[in-house]
Design a protein that fits this description.
This protein is of the alpha+beta class. The chain is about 60% helix and about 15% strand.
Length: about 425
């Protein structure tokens, strides 16, 4: 450009702004399965200001200093990736009472640095021990009993509604209102079918988990399988077919005779299901009681055997004084008596829930004597009187066995009388 001062040059100043490549991010939430014990679901979002290249799940059993294992969840190039992942603690090698350490890692596509990685903090998931797992599963099973009771009441209400609808059809009451009431009734029937299917599925899942945590006797397993089979039969294909047929008749504006015939058949099937459901409810209660007795027998047997083993160890222990380890083990035995008493309360509660409770002899006197002797053994140990301690330990183990045999014999007798 030429001006008064001669030629000049316009200078354009341009500034290049460089944005720093940020680290990738990941947010994850863990949710436990409400039915399958030890199953967890993860949902979240991995993101980067440029591209997410990889997302991995890292895990190991806690407390063993083992190397981290890796599961690749995503490989590719996306600015965002929705994370969904499910794990079962048992399948990852976590035993009852152990915990899983885990974290998620996300890597971006930084070509200069080879990909920047961000990791979540290390978190843990504990797998319940056998005792806690059984308690949790029993609570879940109690929910099935409550669900069956609710379903039984609903079935009876649907039967009453069916009778009212059939009576109105006989009285030539027709029209949109009548048709709408029948459709509502059918919808409730459909919901009931789905509800019963869910109960059967939940019962099967709980049995599977109980078997894994604490395998039942062969006889108990057969009884459970029979119960599941009968629960599955509550929702026959014929019932579903009838619901569909009635819906089709309504759409076709069929005559009242056809509707009444199909509704009557469906009502009869509902009545049969209702009666069967009440029988199954009682059978489930009996199985829960039988299982509680089996678990209690096992608990008492283990306690008595451990007390006998401790007694022998004390007899073989050298020196006049009782070791701290022996004292602690006997104190642990005394603490375990609380679980046995809790088990007896559970048996009594389940027994009272039966339509006709059993006349069970629980061995209260012998069990109390076992507990008293075990506490005296602890006191004798504290006073370093080994002979007195071993004598009390021998008595406590014997009395616990007597209590166990008394309860087991009483339950078996009651069962035989009911089957006669």
């Amino acid at each position: 450009m030429e001006g008064p001062q001669g030629l000049s040059i316009d200078t354009l100043q341009s500034v290049l702004s460089v944005r720093a490549d940020a680290f990738p991010e990941i947010q994850v939430e863990a949710v436990a399965d409400t039915v399958r014990l030890g199953t967890w679901y993860f949902t979240g979002l991995a993101s980067d200001d440029y591209q997410v290249k990889e997302v991995v799940f890292l895990y190991r059993v806690a407390g063993k200093n083992a190397p981290w294992k890796k599961t690749v969840l995503f490989e590719g190039l996306l600015p965002q990736w929705a994370l969904t992942h499910a794990i079962d603690l048992a399948s990852l090698g976590v035993k009852g009472g152990e915990a899983l350490e885990y974290q998620f890692a996300v890597k971006d596509n930084d070509g200069i640095r080879g990909g920047k990685t961000f990791r979540t903090s290390v978190m843990t998931l504990e797998r319940m021990g056998a005792e806690k797992a059984n308690q949790w599963l029993e609570k879940q099973e109690a929910g099935i009993g409550a669900g069956m009771s609710k379903s039984s009441k609903t079935l009876k209400e649907l039967q009453k509604e069916s009778q009212k609808l059939q009576e109105s059809l006989q009285q030539n009451q027709s029209g949109w209102d009548q048709e709408n009431k029948i459709k509502q009734w059918l919808n409730e029937q459909q919901k009931m079918v789905e509800s019963l299917k869910q109960l059967e599925k939940k019962q099967a899942d709980i049995n599977k988990q109980k078997n894994a945590a604490n395998p039942p006797s062969e006889e108990m397993q057969k009884k459970k399988e029979e119960l599941n089979k009968r629960m599955k039969q509550l929702t026959s294909p014929e019932m579903q077919k009838l619901i569909e047929e009635i819906n089709r008749l309504l759409e076709q504006k069929a005559g009242k005779e056809q509707l009444q015939e199909k509704m009557q058949k469906l009502n009869q099937m509902s009545q049969e299901s209702s009666k069967e459901l009440e029988k199954l409810m009682e059978q489930l209660k009996q199985l829960e009681l039988e299982e509680a007795v089996e678990n209690q027998v096992e608990r008492m047997q283990e306690w008595a055997e451990k007390e006998e083993a401790l007694q022998k160890s004390l007899e073989q222990e050298k020196g006049k004084e009782v070791s701290e380890e022996m004292k602690q083990q006997q104190d642990a035995q005394n603490e375990a008596l609380k679980d046995i008493e809790q088990g007896m309360q559970e048996i009594e509660q389940k027994n009272q829930e039966l339509e006709k409770p059993m006349d069970l002899k629980s061995g209260d006197t012998e069990r109390k004597e076992a507990g008293d002797a075990a506490k005296k053994a602890s006191q004798e140990m504290k006073n370093n009187r080994k002979s007195g301690a071993t004598e009390q330990m021998k008595k406590s183990a014997q009395k616990m066995k007597e209590a166990m045999e008394k309860m087991q014999s009483s339950f078996e007798q009651e069962q035989k009388q009911r089957m006669a």
